[in-house]
Amino acid sequence: MHIWIILLRRRQRRIIQVRQPSWYDPIVRSQNLGTIFTSDRECIDQLRMDRGCFRVLCSLVREFGGLRDTRNMKVEEMVAMFLHILGHDKKDRAIHKEFQRSIETISRNFHKVLKSVLKLWSVLLKKPQPIPANHVDERWKWFKNCVGALDGTYIQVHVPAVDKPRYRSRKNNVATNVLGVCALDMQFIYTLPGWEGSAADGKVLRDALSRQNGVVVPRGCYYLVDAGYKNCEGFLAPYRGQRYHLQDWKNSPIKKEELFNMKHASARNVIERTVGLLKIRWAIIRNPSYYPIDTQVDIILACCYLHSLIRQQMGSSDPFVQELDAFMQQQEVNGDTIQSTETSSQWNDWRDKLADEMWNAWNARRQSR
């Protein structure tokens, strides 16, 4: 009987050793998670947002995303693992020791959180708000009733070899063509990833306009767009054939078209900064990942939604904004030409009138000095 008990205990120990890997340690896991939340600085380094923003996100995925604690894991840990993967582009195998969880557990909960975050689009995307006539910001005061700016950007993706020709962009990267629309405060109003890199920007914009929950242009309002887009109702483009990009302005403008383009570029730059900030924060979208393409598209959407949440909650205290200027200097000027809409003579006349007003005000200010 005594020998039987000894053999039984040995068998139980072997079962425990098989079921519980040697690296599994709940104490170490608790310590590692605790370290993340010791300060806002540490939380931002690890999860790309401060502790207050993290708490808000956990509340949102519970209330609107349907995410729930399980017997073995709380929502906070699921979300922390998810953000860690997005922020540092680490594979499941690379982080399972940090969180003391199995690779299967990490993968399963990553997709659970991703699904929950995607449900937050109506909560996190900003509603279009026209600029009032008395706006004081020098960059925007001329653009009454403007609701923001839009542009396309390429984000590299991994696709099967048979699909690579369709996804190859003009820069020869395998990428998805992503339409981004943002407000003055760098919050996303709308974003549409998923189109092949070879797709014309105009085709992407037309698709966004035709969707049930696509780009909304309120009556009498408009977005700022670059010179590749047609100047038409709802979309205000600069004059073609004139200086435009901010790095072009070493000397003062010499005619109304140049002055208009200078002010237009200064305001429309908000979408370029928004996309730049998005890529600085989330390393997972700076390089192609090996998730299925549908999952890669969902990850891009989630990064955009989380970007808007961070802008809402952290504002000017976001340290990644300080890195933005250096990042923007390294980016190429986007010179894409697209055919998205039909030019409107009425819209061209309105642009000319606005340029005249800018030019007259600018000359009057110079003469009064």
TrEMBL record:
Domain DDE Tnp4: 150-307
Annotated keywords: Hydrolase, Metal-binding, Nuclease, Nucleus
One term under GO cellular component: nucleus
Domain of life: Eukaryota
Family matches, as InterPro entries: DUF8040, HARBI1-like, HARBI1_dom
One function term, GO molecular function aspect: metal ion binding
Family: Belongs to the HARBI1 family.
Name of protein: DDE Tnp4 domain-containing protein
Organism (species): Paspalum notatum var. saurae
